[in-house]
Batch of 3 targets.
Target 1
Amino acid sequence: MAAVRLKQIQLETPWVVLDFQGEGTYTGQAANSRPDGFGTFVYSQDSAKSKSDGWKSYTGSWKRGSPYGRGSISYLNGARYDGNVVDGKRAGRGVMSYKPHDHARMRFRGKFERDRKIKGIIWVTVSGKEFSYDGEFNNVGHFHDKNAKVVINGTKGARRYSDDKWIDKPVGAVDLLVQTIHHYY
């Protein structure tokens, strides 16, 4: 077996561990005693970020003490976001996934602005029923595109939804799917 040579990497800024009393702990690159570069912040459950945004941890790029650039957010409810972050808010392209219980799965891939999804595709499966919506979202994150592509259990364009109201009457389990999306997302 050939010997493995490890290459030592010199980081521009050294890694540190910073304890923010009551807020959490940061491990990574820093400047002026605040996160700057790449690192991980694990928030305490009593922290302002956990209480206001439900964050459990953030791993990724930091700029002057704030999440900025590519990163991953883990939420207290089990959700996960991978994508762009600007000043601690989801912004630009990203993927959000969540499994609220054993019988449901949700995933959104698209564009975020000021921490809200604005355009993209959401897939939901609840108890074997599948639903997807490809379109725009209103300012509270609900469906908002009467020309969106909707797929219900493999049937494309079956229903249209806009401003939180069905344009076409929904069928059966679709109401449950939409309620689940609005409740958990």
Note: Residues 89-185 form one domain.
Target 2
Amino acid sequence: MPRPPHPPGSTKPRTPSKGRKPRPGLPDKASVVAVKTLTSPKGNRYRIIETDETDAYDPPIGTDKKPKQ
């Protein structure tokens, strides 16, 4: 669900208050590697969050499936 737009005349982006709990499903701040912004053709903005987290079903990092020659 996208955020509502900023109030008219507001140029400062919203920042969560310090006492607010993190949103469910978002990664821990320590695991965030990069954050990129994507703007759709309609003008909607999305944040792409890259983390170092993996799921249990992901293959282990650093293992190559290619045979060595």
Note: The chain has a mean pLDDT of 79.
Target 3
Amino acid sequence: MLRNRFRVAVPCRIGALNQPVARPGAKSSCHSKVSIMSGNDAAPPPEPTGPGAPKQKSALPGRGGLARIGAATQHSIRGLFEGFMTEAAIKQEVVIAAIAVPLSFFVASSIWIWLALMSSLLFVLSVEFMNTAIERLCNHVQPEKDDAIRDTKDLASAAVFFALLLAGAVWLVAIVDRLGIFG
């Protein structure tokens, strides 16, 4: 039987204008190979499973189990300290959270409202940490002023804005509920 195989290079496109991203002197690994086979080709045989089958490798090489969890916890704690020590916005939000946590016990009229109040605070901090990570990565990749980097940072900042709006709305509704203004 005659088999027809073709290799097609599919370039990755990024950006509003669908322009390829390339940096001077950098090798582009953004082309993937796609095999197109004719109808006469058979599907590849399935991977063997069961007791005699070879073990599959994990998605990421390295330690697993409790050692991986311990290392991940250390990275998280290091990130918390780094963010708190270097970012003014994170410091401000941590101070607000430190005031809001004890206040939440008086504002919440049920455990579910208290959970919503705490979740809104943690959500704001999570989005702020992501915003900080995006900004730092942008500054590392492109230290000079760049419109695309500015837009990326603005988008991340907008995410923080909406997280703050959500937290404000949750707290406002909880306070209104507690005071019985509309109920």
Note: The domain at 89-179 is CATH 1.10.287.3610 (Helix Hairpins).
